[in-house]
Amino acid sequence: MDDLFDCAPPLDSTEAARQDSLLAPRFYTTDFAAMDRIDVSPVRQDWDALMEEFRADINKGHFERAGSFKEAVDQLQEPLRSEFLDFLISSVTAEYSGCVLYNEIAKHVTNPDIKELMRSMARDEARHASFINHSLRDFGLAVDLGRLKREKKQTYFAPKFIFYATYLSEKIGYARYISIYRQLEAHPEFRFHPIFSWFERWCNDEFRHGEAFALLMRADPSLLAGRNRLWIRFFLVAVYATMYVRDQRRVVLHDAFGLDPQQYDFQVFDITSAITRQVFPFTLDTNHPAFRTLLASLRAVLDASEGAKRRGGLSGWLTRGWCAVQAATLFVRLYLHPVVPNRLPADIRLVPAW
After folding, report:
1. Of residues 35, 161, 160, the one with CA closest to residue 110
2. What torsion, rounded to 10 degrees, do the Cα atoms 50, 52, 58, 60 define?
């Protein structure tokens, strides 16, 4: 198993960001010719309305920093400081990953609908990445985004896999950010860094990006039927499980928010499931006790694997191998857990009302 982001203060945030691991955000590339052939005619009315929102660019002046950012640096003590830095580094990697992918698609297609969409989303993600990176710079740990683009390995995904994975990433990102924002809105005493005050309008960008991918999928019904239902199920389980395991390793960070990480994750799952009913033919039954038990077991196995890696030696190697088998088995059981069927609504578009 590859190195995971741990919670030790990184000596080189760029090196931490470029690592490929089970839980770390990845960089993607895709079939640009296939992207160029996309036809949004079946959803033209909704598509044109969405593109008007992108053109309005309502967050153009939103990401302006206040003087309180640097003041917050000296107030953060360990271990909260390390977990917060881990959060920022993984966040800037995820945001910049979207920026790079969308830019590359825009450069390689002539389809005016897809080109304009990708340019708009790349613009938003670039702002997000830059905004986070400025906060890392306050700690002397800014990520070299140019180096990251050159050196981080890219994973090839066919367009439909990009749609499933990125749609979920954008929508679960919205659910995560809005849940933190609402908690800190109700309890400002837990807002230990000013960046969280920007989360509401920030996550509305994420929501809008997800709407674009929802329309792309609804424009081609074959993406949501037949064997593709198996792929949708895979990506749902993978994204939810990755988030759960990662968040359970940030106990101090969630405690600083006044949140229990398990309750927070299942709240995020509830919001994401409610949103994804706009496009997916089923949702995961995340509130079923058996599903929750399987997630907890997966987290325990991955933690054991990390402990074995730190221990090293033959014993550690053998333990990690056994943990890999257990983790794969648990993932399969999560995958096979019964889902909740969903009839797709006639009206595709949603508004960020959570």
Report:
1. 35
2. 110
Query: For strand 27-29 and strand 154-156, is the pairing parallel, antiparallel, or unpaired?
Result: parallel
Distance from C-alpha of 298 to C-alpha of 292, rounded to nearest angstrom? 10
- Cβ–Cβ under 8 Å, residues 219 and 279: no
259-290 burial by CB neighbour count: b if 16+ within 10 A, else e? bebbebbbbbbbbbbebbbbbbbbbbebeeee
* Cα dihedral 267, 254, 135, 133 sign: negative
pLDDT digit string, tens, across residues 137-194: 988 888 888 887 887 888 899 999 999 999 999 999 999 999 999 999 999 999 999 9
Residue with tokens 């006790």: 289
Instruction: Give the per-residue pLDDT at 190.
Output: 96
pTM of the predicted structure, to 2 decimals: 0.90
Which pLDDT score is estimated for 71?
81
State the alpha helices, DSSP H only, in the chain.
13-18, 32-36, 44-56, 68-73, 80-108, 112-138, 145-151, 159-186, 199-218, 228-248, 251-257, 261-276, 289-311, 313-336
312 sits in the region (left: phi over 0; alpha: psi -120 to 50; else beta) called: left
For 272, how many CA atoms within 13 A lie in the half-sphere containing its CB?
31
CB 352 within 8 A of CB 207: yes
Domains of the chain: which residue ranges?
Answer: 13-221
Give the strand pairing for 282-284 and 154-156. Answer: unpaired
CB atoms within 10 A of CB 61: 7
List the one residue out of 154, 164, 41 whose CA is nearest residue 100: 154
